Amino acid sequence: MKKELIHLAAADGISGFEFSLTEAVKKLMKPYCDSVEADTMGNVIGHIPSENPTAKSVMLEAHIDGIGLMVSGISEEGFLSFVPVGGVDSAVLPGAEVWVYGNEQLFGVIGMKPPHLQTSGRDAAVPIDELVIDVGLSGEEVRNKVKVGDMVCFAESVKALSGKVLSGKSFDDRAGLISLLLCLKALKGKKLPFHLYVVAAVQEEVGLRGAAMVSERLAPDCAFVVDVCHGDTPDGGSESIFKLGSGAVISFGPNIHPYLSSLAKTVAKKEKIKVSYDADGGDTGTDAWAVQVAGMGIPVLLLSIPLRYMHTTVETLHFDDVKAVGDLLSAMLLNLDLEALGCTFQN
Amino acid sequence: MYLSELTALPGVSGNENAVRAYIKKRMEPLCDRIEIDSMGNMMCFKKGTGNTGKTLMLCAHMDEVGLIVSRITEEGFLKFKTVGGIDPRVLVSKRVLIGEEGLPGVIGRKAIHLLTPEERKKAPKVKELYVDFGAKNKKEAEKYVTVGDYIVFDSAYREFGDSLVKTKALDDRVGCGALMELAQEPCTWDICFAFTVQEETGLRGARLCARRVKPDLAVVLEGTTCSDIPGTNSNMVSTRLGGGAAISFVDGTTSFNRQLVSWLYRLGEENQIPVQYKQTATGGNDAGIIHVSAGGILVISISVPARYIHSPSSVISLQDYKAVKDLTKVLMQEVDYADNIENIM
Predict the structure, then answer these.
(1) Which of A35, B169, B209, B299 could cysteine-pair with B194, CB 3.0–4.6 Å?
(2) Do B79 and A283 touch (CB under 8 A)?
(3) What ipTM score was computed for the predicted complex, to two decimals?
């Protein structure tokens, strides 16, 4: 699965443009699902039915969109101006390499005025509207090939830093999808007493949109969302920060159903899976926030993979953490009692 | 009166269990059927006296603002995050109760002698504060507390002044208490008493009730801001303590139906119940999500003014609380009027 992660994280497909990923994601799901379909918005949904057609259902979810840029204008000389799609830190942009998806795929570099010509001074962060994409072509050629609204992705492949520590551009949240696949792999051939849906959702980075619509439509009896959380860095402080290689992070708080977080704790202990705990006072900033109040309400658990340098071109993680989330998920599904879950608040 | 018991219960958003259990036990004999959903919202249904086929939803939220343990330090202190909107300046040196057991603790910050002149001028940040519950170190602390445990303010119910009450969680146990006391009042429409969860984290629970119940009219009973204290410009005084039931016509999340609002105000006047308009357009409550749910629902919001809301020491007037109950009782009797509302604005 490490190979699949490396391939998937390097693939393009920013929020709203996930169609370039759809086929690859379908192909990854197919070996484990009875059917795999994509909806009109680009969400990919795999289904593993239970033998009992009236059984309850469970949804596993991760989002496949990444952050990126979009062409917003073309200058006389052929430089492209652009806007961010999702939460892009403009500090990572100067000098970044990109792919511009015009009529053809064009390589480009993000350029800025030399420091001595900048108006804002060397100490100020460069505002995004003072940056341009240079695709090295004449104005006329660019206008023939590129139009406003075209997708721009970071041109960045995955590199192993050391052993199992990998760096790349879209681990958020393609690593989450790999955890889901690891879970399905572990469960292959096992009979579950519920229908299982695995969802690769779109447009998380622009407002949790894919997850909201899919979870309302599928109306599962419970849902597991996998996303990334912040990994440890020298400057990141210690609140809600987790060491790379420390395992899966289990979330607690109002966004999380207490039966599911407590089950995660118990199962991790029993199966000796490395975990740590995180708590949020409200919004977890993930698809779990949308899933919880979709339809008539869906009990949800958030599991996270520690990730350094989130929303940059060099997001960095430890592959063991991806595995730990997959292990915890599969063990939880084997121990999940949907009746007990349903009774949580009844007394 | 349920208010003193209700406000004493812990019920930080996401952990409303104790409040729900207390209310359920007392509502069971008073209604026909109770439904609790997957998030913990409790809906108590009662058949109306007329066969109108209409449903009135009376709504109050069970949750209160509070804290949640996010990390245990090596020294055994608890780092926390806030649940709901809390001004960190009210937190320093307050007493709290931790977890299911309600272990006593205090919110600590280094003493003023140790603050630099710059630090003294600045409001403390939540991440600079911690809860001290006397643990020797992390190992000992972990025997009693775990990440994800909720922390609630420790503040006693106390009547003082001219029929005022001071305690925590008046927002919105006043609504819960009012609903419970109104459970036996007659109404021609079918009624759903909806006790919602997680209002303070973003009107999260009420939307599920609205979708499930699809009422013809929803009335949200709330505690609302009251800023009638010295130094507030008169145009920023939202409500006045002792001024009666506060009726909202617009707030940060809802533009209420003007015809309904005027009718309600008139109902108060005609029945000698003190009423006032909530005069600022800020804030918001469950009405904000209910009115845009299930294809659109007519809403009303009636509030008890509360000074120092979202702090351990919020203050209401029992006369305002009574006015809210009285006005809602009359509304229940006259609810057929809501049938005649022709357009939403």
Answers:
(1) B209
(2) no
(3) 0.85
Distance of CA B88 to the CA centre of its chain: 19
The CA distance from A72 to A132, in Å, is 10
The residue out of A154, A182, A215 marking a domain boundary is A154
The pLDDT score that the predictor gives to residue A115 is: 66
User: Residues B326, B188: one domain?
Assistant: yes
Question: Final residue of a domain: which of B91, B118, B153?
Answer: B153
- Across the interface, whether the CB atoms of B21 and A299 are under 8 A apart is answered no
User: Which burial class, exposed, middle or buried, applies to A168 when counting CB atoms under 10 A from its CB (0-12, 13-18, 19+)?
Assistant: buried
With an 8 Å Cβ cutoff, the interface of chain A facing chain B consists of 237-240, 252-258, 261, 277-283, 292-293, 295-299, 342, 344-347
pLDDT digits (tens, 9 = 90+) for A257-309: 999 999 999 999 999 999 999 999 999 999 999 999 999 999 999 999 999 99
**Among B210, B230, B70, which Cα is nearest to A279's?**
B70
Q: In this structure, what token pair is assigned to residue B174?
A: 């006043």
pLDDT for res B345: 45
In this structure, the answer to whether residues B177 and B247 fall within a common structural domain is yes
- A295 to B211: CB separation less than 8 angstroms, yes or no: yes
Residue with tokens 């942009």: A93
| pLDDT grade for B274, boundaries at 50, 70 and 90 | very high
In a domain, B163, yes or no: no
Please tell me whether residues A139 and A178 are part of one structural domain. no
* Whether residue B118 is found in the same domain as residue B178: no
> What CATH number should be reported for the domain holding residue A31?
3.40.630.10
Q: What is the CATH number of the domain that holds A95?
A: 2.40.30.40
- Residue A48 CB-half CA count within 13 A: 24
Same structural domain, B134 and B180: no
My answer on whether A234 and A333 are in the same domain is yes
In a domain, A242, yes or no: yes
- Residues B125, B126, B131, B137, CA torsion sign: negative
Q: Inspect the interface and report whether the beta carbons of B201 and A261 lie closer than 8 Å.
A: no
- Closest alpha carbon to A311 in A157, A169, A159, A120: A169
The answer to whether the Cβ–Cβ distance between A281 and B201 falls below 8 Å is yes
pLDDT at residue B343 above 70? Answer: no
End-of-domain residue from the set B153, B188, B218: B153
pLDDT tens across B79-118, in order? 999 999 998 889 998 999 999 999 999 999 888 888 888 8
Q: Say yes or no: B55 contacts chain A, CB-CB below 8 A.
A: no
| Residues B194-223: tens digit of each pLDDT | 999 999 999 999 999 999 999 999 999 999
- The pLDDT tens digits of the residues spanning A187-225 come to 999 999 999 999 999 999 999 999 999 999 999 999 999
- Share above pLDDT 70 across residues of chain A, in percent, rounded to a whole number: 98
Would you say A78 and A145 are in contact if contact means Cβ atoms under 8 Å apart? no
Helix axes A319-335, A258-271, angle to 10 degrees: 110
**Residue B136: how many other CB atoms lie within 10 Å:** 9
Q: Which one of B24, B36, B37, B39 would you mutate to disrupt binding with A, by most A Cβ within 10 Å of its Cβ?
A: B39
User: Per the domain annotation, does A314 fall within a domain?
Assistant: yes
- Residues pairing with A48 in the sheet: A196
The two structure tokens encoding residue A65? 């969109």
CA distance A239 to A237: 6
Query: Does residue B103 sit at the A interface (CB-CB below 8 Å)?
Result: no
Tell me the chain B residues in contact with residue A240 when contact means C-beta distances shorter than 8 Å: 70-71
Q: What is the pLDDT of residue B236?
A: 79
What residues make up the domain containing B148? 66-153
| Shared-domain flag, residues A139 and A224 | no
Residue B15 contacts A, CB cutoff 8 Å? yes
**pLDDT digit string, tens, across residues A167-193:** 999 999 999 999 999 999 999 999 999
**What pTM does this model have?**
0.91
- For the packed helices A171-187 and A2-10, what is the interaxial angle rounded to 10 degrees? 150
